[in-house]
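Note to self: keep these together.
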Amino acid sequence: MIILKNRRRFLVTVSLLIACSILAVQPLATIAAGFETFKLPIAEFEPGMPSLYLRGPVEPAKNVILLISDGTGINHRTLVRIASGGANSKLPSERLFEVGLANTHSLDSLVTDSAASATQIATGNWVPNRTISVNADGEPLQTILELAKTLGKSTGIITTDRVTGATPAGFAGHVPDRDMKNEIAQIILENDSVDVLIGGGKKNFQSPVAGKKGDRTDGRDLLEEAAERGVTICNSIYELRADDSPRTWALLSSGSMTAAVKRNYTLGDLTSEALRRLSQNPEGFFLMVEGDQIDGGGHDNDIWRMALELLDFETAVEVATEFAENRDDTLVIVVSDHETGGLAITNGQAQSTEVEYGWIHGGHTGTPVAIYSSGPNSFLLGGHIYLADISKIIAFGWDIYDFGPDRAVEGPGAKWLLSKQNQQ
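Structure:
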């Protein structure tokens, strides 16, 4: 990897590359499993954590709505935009004011999984793949949702996956491996940090007793225990709509949620249900919404599934932006955790909604993802950043300056941050 620290180094690098080409010294490349690996002969790896760039002072942000489209690359969104309205149309996410890019690599791989990327978004820490919000010693890393709770804010998680899946678990769980779903469910209950919880995964909360279809082996029913703690349990979309409780859990399926095309409600509908509860808190709220099954479409190279799930996700974006539209206290962030499938748009007519496309494989890629945002501090997300920057900036908006790992800060906002840290 070339790090362009200054103009002189850049010129030296270019000169050496030109010399290599003249002398026919080829960059190192090998072929493995149909793909090539590449390394420049003059490459210099720079270890350590990257600096955080602040374009200016941070503004207060009472509420945060973070929407994660799992596995969605720029080409996924571009294809769906064209197929649903033409090349000149825009999806709700594409109408947000600020656009940036985020690098997604984990601690141990250029290609992250959803566990490590969720941990990076939720805690600001880079961890190995499969890790859910714990450090190398297995100790919990505080998440931005847990920070919100300590500040007296209401908190919510919505997902089309199990609520114990990798992405939601990154915000409310702490385990060394993402497959520890029963343990994640127990942590969600015992940490008491999630007020509104909507998604699938009921079987991770229940044992197979008294006719229940659970995966637990300890005989516990965590939903009954949650009800004893004052949480209203809803078992259907109809119960959820009829309920007004500020603390509500709605686990609407045993495993992952039903596909969008088979549901009689959208992710936007679920987002509305969460917002009408969370917005009752005068201290504000933090809400994470995940469109999980876009990623499944990418893994299966199923263009229809990917497109329909992404359109369902965009209904949640529309609800979030409508909520924040006439307010100056709500930050809305739309981001992906990684790209899946290596989707490419290969041809098509500009005056058409038909798109030619192709996939490179059924796994994740290391491609940077887009960040769309609006509201207070959205301008800080408009550069080329890291997923780990997101929770740092959210915490700054809550007047918290020591959240996550220590990182050097650069840019026009660095002096402002230093003065704030000195005041605390």
